[in-house]
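Q: What would this chain look like folded?
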Amino acid sequence: SRNEGFASYIADNVRVGNIYINRDMIGAVVGVQPFGGQGLSGTGPKAGGPFYLHRFCTEKTISNNTAAIGGNTTLLALADD
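A: My prediction, written as structure tokens:
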């Protein structure tokens, strides 16, 4: 920004990992940093995007044998009907 006070205010008050003010060359590493934006926000979906968060997630399935841990066998039998 040409207004250093505004740039300082933004840098001190926004809660983000990266911020670039009036720059289209961001230096973000594709597929590593969550940057891109849609429409007039950002410079396009180069890095990040709608599925970016999935990169940091691990899917986990947990199954409990409720009958073995004292579950209600009458209710469990209803599922077989």
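The first helix runs from residue 4 to 13.
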